[in-house]
UniProtKB/TrEMBL annotation:
Belongs to the thiolase-like superfamily. FabH family. It holds the Pfam family ACP_syn_III_C. The active site is at C115, H257, N287. Pathway: Lipid metabolism; fatty acid biosynthesis. It catalyses: malonyl-[ACP] + acetyl-CoA + H(+) = 3-oxobutanoyl-[ACP] + CO2 + CoA. Catalyzes the condensation reaction of fatty acid synthesis by the addition to an acyl acceptor of two carbons from malonyl-ACP. Catalyzes the first condensation reaction which initiates fatty acid synthesis and may therefore play a role in governing the total rate of fatty acid production. Possesses both acetoacetyl-ACP synthase and acetyl transacylase activities. Its substrate specificity determines the biosynthesis of branched-chain and/or straight-chain of fatty acids. It comes from Nocardiopsis gilva YIM 90087. This is Beta-ketoacyl-[acyl-carrier-protein] synthase III. The gene is fabH. GO terms for cellular component: cytoplasm. The last Arg residue of the ACP-binding site is essential for the weak association between ACP/AcpP and FabH. One of its GO terms (molecular function) is beta-ketoacyl-acyl-carrier-protein synthase III activity. GO terms for biological process: fatty acid biosynthetic process; secondary metabolite biosynthetic process.
């Protein structure tokens, strides 16, 4: 993505959400919340949740299988899984996902950048292709935040859902439709505690003390994160557009991490591009973390909202803090 004559080109797209659905009304039966509050504050109407015993890896395998089918192949030289809810703390989820897809022996590793994970994984995978190390890559975003939410936290339980999405990248020319370009990545570790699971890692475990139960769950300082999300995704999308020489008015679709419908509206206003250029499926799936961007891409591609030849910028923001964007001219692919 940095001036070489070889590019990583999007060749396939596959997605999967578990069949279990939790509506806002169902949440309101367990918590002090309401359909009206959740819809008006977030734009979310329902979310999908895995069944007992299922995992992020299970969703990743299904999305990966579908992406390979969409690309018309059964092979990838490398499998990268973006997730912050791995099947186990150790080892990485990707090797087992690769083996379940019939790809034992290929390079396979996880990327942890929370809700920016898919953009980071695209960037790393594109680099492996551009360098000539790999001819094809399967890039999967899969998360099951339902497994790490505090059952009594109405703010996070209203927001997050489970899901997975994947793309196949292949080597090609920078001029092709689907070629990834204009990658921008950023982070701010001084604000890492705004989004965290405090316990379960080396810092807490090295104390030798059992964790407080509340620290074993995901926490997020919603208001502060909201402001950071608007600030950094706006700047990152603009940075990618600048790197590509695209005026923001020329961008046909801005496909962002689906954190909150009000965040999308605020960014549209700041960038000065109409909200109709921001595809959204947050009403149906909520915030699916690393799966969010491929899931909204798949919906927009299937509905015809996203058309081959359109200029697209993908953008993410999440824990770390981390953020990133990448551009492409949308290719002619069908979603599986
Ligand atoms: O994906 C990674 C990046 N994540 C984000 O970008 C998320 C950004 N943040 C948000 O989307 C929003 O901050 C939330 C949706 C998480 C929360 O919405 P908010 O409008 O920022 O609410 P708040 O946290 O400022 O809380 C306002 C009030 C509080 O009540 P009090 O203290 O004023 O009495 C909350 O307890 O809203 C209450 N509240 C709720 N009420 C009903 C929080 N969640 C709920 C709920 N139902 N589900």
């Amino acid at each position: 993505m940095s001036g070489t004559d070889r590019a990583a080109v999007v060749a396939g797209l596959g997605v999967w959400v578990p069949p279990g659905v939790v509506t806002n009304d169902a949440l309101a039966q367990q918590l002090d919340t309401s359909d009206e509050w959740i819809r008006s504050r977030t734009g979310i109407g329902r979310r999908h949740i895995i069944a007992p015993g299922e995992s992020s890896g299970d969703l990743a395998v299904e999305a990966g299988r579908r992406a390979l089918k969409s690309a018309g192949t059964d092979h990838a030289d490398v499998v990268v899984v973006a997730t912050s809810t791995p099947d186990r703390p150790c080892p990485a989820t990707a090797p087992e996902v690769a083996s379940r897809l019939g790809l034992t022996g290929v390079g396979a590793f996880d990327v942890g950048a929370v809700c920016t994970g898919f953009v980071y994984a695209l960037g790393v995978s594109a680099g492996l292709i551009e360098s000539g190390f790999a001819s094809t890559a399967l890039v999967i975003g899969a998360d099951t935040f339902s497994t790490i939410l505090n059952p009594s936290d109405r703010a996070t339980r209203a927001v997050f859902g489970d899901g997975a999405g994947a793309v196949v990248l292949r080597g090609g020319a920078p001029s092709e439709h689907g070629a990834l370009k204009g990658l921008h990545l950023g982070s701010d570790g001084t604000r890492s505690r705004l989004i965290e699971v405090a316990a379960g890692g080396s810092r807490q475990r090295s104390t030798g003390l059992p964790p407080d139960e509340a620290d074993t769950y995901f926490t997020m300082e919603g208001r502060a994160v909201f402001a950071e999300a608007v600030r950094h995704m706006t700047a990152s999308v603009q940075e990618t557009a600048d790197r590509l020489g695209w005026a923001t008015a020329d961008i046909d679709k801005v496909v962002l991490h689906q954190a909150n419908a009000r965040i999308l509206a605020a960014i549209a206003e700041r960038i000065g591009v109409g909200s109709e250029r921001f595809p959204s499926n947050i009403d149906r799936v909520g915030n699916t973390v690393a799966a969010s961007i491929p899931l909204v891409l798949a919906d927009a591609n299937s509905s015809g909202e996203l058309q081959a030849g359109q200029k697209v910028v993908l953008g993410g923001f999440g824990g770390g803090l981390s953020w990133g964007s990448v551009g492409l001219v949308w290719p002619d692919i069908s979603t599986c």
